[in-house]
Structure formats: C-alpha cells, structure tokens
Amino acid sequence: MARAVLRVVEAGPHCSVQDGGRAGLMRFGVPASGAMDRVALALANRAAGNPAGAAAVEVSLGGLVLEVEEGRLSLAIAGGGFVVQAGALRCGSWSVVTLTEGERLSVRRGPWGAWCVLAPAGRLVVPEWLGSAATHALSGLGGGAVAAGRRLVVEEARVLPARDLPCPVWARSRDEVAVVIGPQERFFASGQIDRLLGDAFRLTDAYDRMGVRLRGPSLAPEGALGIPSEPVLRGAVQVAGDGVATVLLADHQTTGGYPKIATLAGAELDGFVQLRPHDTVEFRAVTPEGAAGMARVRAAALARMRMT
Fold it and tell me: Does domain 171-304 have CATH number 2.40.100.10?
C-alpha cells in the first residue's frame, strides 16, 4: 500500500490539522472546532478523492513549507488566494499538485484570503479526540498543531492529474455579510442596531481560531452584563461592556454571558473568515427565514460543483 511522509520545514501560527468538526458535543462543553473555511475543506477533499470532512492541513496567513521525505503523492489546495510553489511548479491555490521524494511545497500569502486547506490524496494519519481529528487550538487536542519538525504520514497515497480547481465566487472574501439580528437585541438601543447595520467595521489583529475583534462604532449594551451564561454559536456577534464587538469562530467557547447583538448567516461564515486583519466589513440584516434560504441555496451549489 502506497505511503508518503511529509516533513514540516516551516509553519506560521495557527497551522493545524482540521476536519469537518466535532459535532454534537457542545452540550458537554466541547467546542466543535473544525476548518475555519468549511467550504474550502469540503472542496479540497473532494478534489483529492476523500470524504468532504476528512482530516486535512489548514494553513494560516503565516504560510507553510513541507518536504516529501518518502513516497509520492498529490495534494489539493483550496481556500484563500495563496501563492503555491510545488517543486518547480509555481501556481495559485485552487489547484491539484503532485510532489515526489525530495520536493518541497511552499504555501505563502497571496492577493486575498486568510486561510487555505491542503488535502492529501490519501488518508492523513493523525490522532483523534472524541471521534474527530479537528484540533482545538487552546488545548491542542485532536490532530494537533502543524509546526516545524513534525512529520505527517499519508497512507493510501495516490497520484492525481495536475489541474486547476474552480473557485466559486461565493467562496471568496466579501466586504458585506448578512446577519440575523439578535438573540439579545433587547439590550441594545435602536441607535446601536442602526450603527451595526449602517457603519463599516474593521477586523483587528486580535484574530485567531476562537474569534476576531472588530474596530468600529461603540455598540455598548444597556444593563446586560448580569445576564446568565448561555450557549453561543459560531458566527455570533457578541458585545462586551465597553461596546467592542467580537465575531465568534471555529474554536469559540460553548457558553458565554455577553449579549449577542446579531449572528452571521451560516452561509456567509466561510467568506467572512477569508477577510484579513485591517479589512473592512459591513453588515446587512436578513430574517431567519432568509438566512435558512441562503444556506439551502449554498448547499445546493456546493453539491453541484464537480471537483473530481
């Protein structure tokens, strides 16, 4: 059975092994984690001939360099518009490349996007925790950080034809994102809701897999700091007592007591995470039914895409 071994030569912060996430355990206080860009994970895995939620390597803006120590294999790369050097081939992400023993793969930040996914054509052999290889960054549980010196083993390694992959427009970063107002809008004056929907916000450097803090108009809640802690969702826009908003992301805590002024529509989350620190974003309101309709349209479009 074919086997390949990749050595991590260089890795930026937040590079890790991720999969489709640890579903169904938040009620026990276990974050779901999983890929920041779930569409990129699914499309890269499909292009590599793997199940959509299979374990893969997630790369941050800090980049990644791998070297093949043993074997030969192909990798599918999807996500932000990164710059890729695979052996002698220079290309962009949204491609399938093949490496042989001694060759290196370099992934560096390109013109847009904050995260990309490398899916090997084969089975990435990594630790699992509670049935998933998704890495929870704070604890390190799951498949683990991808750091210099680590070796990644791929069993059942396959070689695929080199090719470009289609990058859907809706998978790119966007400067306007749909949100559903609430669930704690009652703690915010009408003027605060107007500011959320009428002004631009800037992503700050306080950005990791748990969430990203926004810089913009103050959204200070009124009398909300004593509310009971309750479940929180990926995409929730929670506001601290100082009026600063934070969008919760893949590794978010399972409960929290800050009021949530809005929640990003699920279909918009993968595009939102491709924004970089200092990029600006504006929010527009949709109804819960509208957000559900967006999710259905996006799921249908994803199902129609041919990646193999």
Answer: yes
